Amino acid sequence: MKVRKLIFPQQMEIINHQPLILAAGFFDGLHLGHQNVIGTAIRLARIKGLPAGVLTFDRHPSVVFGPQKGANYQYLSAPKRKLELFRNLGVDIVYIAQFDREFSQLTPPEFVDKFLMSLHLDTLVAGFDWTFGPKDLATMKQLKILAANRFDIVEIPKLQLAGEKISSTNVKKYLAQHQIFQANLFLGYNYQNSGPVVHGRAIGRTLGFPTANVAVAADQLLPALGVYVTRILVDDCWYPAMTQIGRNLTFNQGQNPVTVEANILNFQQDIYGQNVRLEWLQYLRGEIAFANKQQLIAQLQQDQLATRKYFEKK
Ligand SMILES: Cc1cc2nc3c(=O)[nH]c(=O)nc-3n(C[C@H](O)[C@H](O)[C@H](O)COP(=O)(O)O)c2cc1C
Ligand SMILES: Nc1ncnc2c1ncn2[C@@H]1O[C@H](COP(=O)(O)OP(=O)(O)OP(=O)(O)O)[C@@H](O)[C@H]1O
């Protein structure tokens, strides 16, 4: 899979390849709706014997425009993970347009004439609600008019589950409400976070439950605080684990920063410094400020039983 960064207008002239089937969207999370859009582009590309491309942006448009302006946006799939998901789907080429002021101020006709036309499109595939500028002007209906006699448009109708649109916004909402099953259902895979294992305060092992503290980068969205059944990928091998996202309320009067700590079942290796992935499977409970260590240990034993049960059923 090729990856090209596009900075408009400087880097547009380097594009010179055969006609392309292009799926367009931001695609945060690559949920089932996105998979349908990109999957359609890929199938069409294979039929026509052309490459299948994806057009995305280097940051979420709301970082430039919306209420989150200038904020640290948290992604379901931060840049590296997004590329991995595109690759898994079988995309041939990814165009990442730099979403800066200049690019964002293109009018709808300019976006088509100056930007899309230089990508040498055979067909553009996008969802029914894709916009490429102001919501009321840059609609799919308008795109069909602007593209007439130049490239084809395939519009993908709304994909819903139980009356709800499969969307990044809904997946984020579920993760914020501990609804892991719903989030994973909409994604079509189990939600993940990743990062290196860093040193904690080494309290876990004194409880009989050593934990791998995973330093998840700030641009990755984490599920809401709480305790979860997870799987963890260490050295290409998945292990059952129970993981807390929380402040270790029992210690230091809850003044600790939020950490992600995984107790891996039946595991004794030293994995400091290694990159791991956590896959979120089921919400168990909220974090509790216990009166003493013994109560915390008793609860951790309960959590371990629940975790074992989850994996026995699988
Ligand atoms: C599955 C799991 C559940 C946990 N639940 C709680 C909890 O409810 N309350 C709490 O204060 N700490 C909880 N902890 C955090 C422990 O206090 C934590 O493992 C300990 O502080 C170790 O920190 P360290 O890695 O910095 O040594 C939990 C940890 C795990 C792995
Ligand atoms: N449920 C869906 N059905 C059909 N097309 C979809 C669906 N969800 C997204 N798309 C399309 O996929 C592309 C990427 O969409 P976008 O990144 O805006 O996703 P989204 O999940 O709708 O995001 P958000 O929740 O932030 O609005 C667009 O072409 C969009 O129209």
Describe the structure.
The protein is of the alpha/beta class and 314 residues long. It folds into two domains: 2-165, Rossmann fold, CATH 3.40.50; 190-313, Riboflavin kinase-like (Elongation Factor Tu (Ef-tu), domain 3), CATH 2.40.30. 29% of the residues lie in helices and 26% in strands. The chain has helices at 32-48, 61-64, 79-89, 101-104, 108-115, 140-147, 168-176, 180-187, 293-313; strands spanning 2-6, 20-24, 52-57, 93-97, 121-127, 152-156, 160-161, 164-165, 192-198, 212-214, 226-234, 237-246, 259-264, 275-285. The chain is elongated, with a radius of gyration of 22 Å. Adenosine-5'-triphosphate (ATP) is lined by residues 24-28, 33-34, 37, 126-130, 156, 158-159, 165-169.
Percent range for β-strand residues: 25-35%
Tell me the series of helices and strands, N- to C-terminal. Answer: EEHEHHEHHEHEEEHHEEEEEEH
Low-confidence stretches: none
How much helicity do the residues have?
Answer: 25-40%
Alpha-carbon distance between the termini?
Answer: 34 Å
The radius of gyration computed from the alpha-carbon positions, rounded to a whole number of angstroms, is 22 Å
CATH homology group of the largest domain = HUPs
Total helices: the number is 9
* Spatial strand arrangement across the major sheet: 1-4-3-2-5-6
And the CATH topology of the largest domain? Answer: Rossmann fold
**CATH architectural type of the largest domain:** 3-Layer(aba) Sandwich
Shape: elongated
Structural class: alpha/beta
The CATH class of the largest domain: Alpha Beta
Question: Averaged pLDDT, please?
Answer: 94
- How many domain regions? 2
